[in-house]
Amino acid sequence: MAERPYIVGNWKMNGTRAMLSEARAIDRAAQRYMRAEVAIAPPYTLIHAVHREAEQIGIGAQDCHAGEDGAHTGDISATMVADAGAKFVILGHSERRADHKESNALINDKIASALDAGLRIILCCGESLETREKGGAEEFVLKQLKASLPRIDDAGERLTVAYEPVWAIGTGKTATTKDIEAMHNAIRGLLDDTYGKEQSENVRILYGGSVKPDNAREILSIAEVGGALVGGASLSAESFLGIVVAASETEEA
Ligand code: PEP
């Protein structure tokens, strides 16, 4: 894998301005642990404030609307998040697929809009527990990705994939190293076929689902794991930094 491990905190619907001190602490630490690339996706309301203060970390959004502008009360476009300082957007997160009934078609429209606005994409995929127990996890995830991978020439620059088994998100359960490795290898195969090896090798595949300081080292040392998408453990600088330190000390695969 070509690049530094990428550690991204997804703050979800958490954080008021009181959380800016955590963002500052994460930013300061990111300046010390440069072997990892560190980013956070705060709620929309904090993107601009974090962007103004952060010197090192990347700032992203957790979603965007598919449209450019117009009569969509309460929605935020890709152009708006870019204007607020976001450099990337997380799309296809399982919580959005579940809570907002987001389809692959809608996610594709959002990806197109985000790319037009100059944003990088973190595209999430992952199977339910039922699908895993039936033995269909790999087929499901590859199908989900095939439906959404954007047809672009510079995927290596603009795309990150996050494999997040739905049953591992926020539950304290993590997939086994063997299962993570098998899934990441399968995803890599699809990226090679879609973009060619040269572009594909620069697309990092993150693992997400209850990554914590005490399991990060093991997960991040799996071949083809190019970083982590972190929910709960990104809400305090202390626990998030435990993961950043593990990433910065993990040997390059
Ligand atoms: C997530 O929501 O992307 C996530 C991985 O959450 P958690 O780390 O809390 O499981």
Summed up:
The protein is an alpha/beta fold.
What would the keywords be for this entry?
253 residues; alpha/beta; TIM Barrel; 8-stranded parallel barrel; 12 helices; 8 strands; 45% helix; binds phosphoenolpyruvate
Structural features, described:
It is a single chain. The chain has one domain (6-252): TIM Barrel (Alpha-Beta Barrel). Helix content is 45%, strand content 15%. It has twelve helices and eight strands. It has helices at residues 20-32, 44-53, 78-84, 94-99, 104-116, 129-134, 137-148, 155-158, 177-195, 197-200, 213-220, 237-249; strands at 6-10, 37-41, 58-61, 88-91, 120-125, 159-163, 205-208, 227-230. It has an eight-stranded parallel barrel, surrounded by eight helices. Strand 3, helix 3 (78-84) and strand 4 form a beta-alpha-beta unit. The N and C termini lie close together (6 Å). The structure holds phosphoenolpyruvate.
Itemize the secondary structure elements and their pairings.
Layout: E1 6-10, H1 20-32, E2 37-41, H2 44-53, E3 58-61, H3 78-84, E4 88-91, H4 94-99, H5 104-116, E5 120-125, H6 129-134, H7 137-148, H8 155-158, E6 159-163, H9 177-195, H10 197-200, E7 205-208, H11 213-220, E8 227-230, H12 237-249
Parallel strand pairs: 1-2, 1-8, 2-3, 3-4, 4-5, 5-6, 6-7, 7-8
Helix pairs in contact: 1-12, 7-9, 11-12
The chain binds phosphoenolpyruvate.
